[in-house]
Amino acid sequence: MPKIRTSRTRQPPEGWEDIEPTLDDFAQRLREVENEPHEGKRKNEALWPIFQLNHQRSRYIYDLFYTRKAISRPLYDYCLKYGYADANLIAKWKKQGYEKLCCVRCIQPKDTNFGTACICRIPKAKLDEGRVVQCVHCGCRGCASSD
């Protein structure tokens, strides 16, 4: 017989009331993006808005904690634990050279054809003039830190 789960969710830390409306707005926008039709788009293109919203939501939490220092450590940990922010992406943002990283897939060499980083990680100064580059994985137009 399976266990019956009771609602023992931990109460959010102090300050949750301040950021909850914004996170609810992100959740609503994510639901809208998931439900919109994707006929005529490539398989990867249908996922781009989801990656972009995940980036925006994670950047919001990151900025609140690291740059503006507007939320406490327990609230930050709560957001990471319950999936309001991408912990792996935030861990990369703290490292030099990855401050503007769009998604973790762009730095995984196994996801590219030639075993290198994604095209959006190349600085725009090293590309041809007027060439528009767009990532296949997330639709990013360039997330190199030197741009």
From TrEMBL:
Superkingdom of this protein's organism: Eukaryota
Gene Ontology biological process: mRNA splicing, via spliceosome
Keyword match Nucleus: yes
Assigned GO CC terms: spliceosomal complex
Keywords for this protein: Nucleus
InterPro entries xref list: BUD31, BUD31/G10-rel_CS
Record family assignment: Belongs to the BUD31 (G10) family.
Name this protein carries in UniProt: Component of the SF3b subcomplex of the U2 snRNP
Species the sequence originates in: Dimargaris verticillata
Gene: BUD31
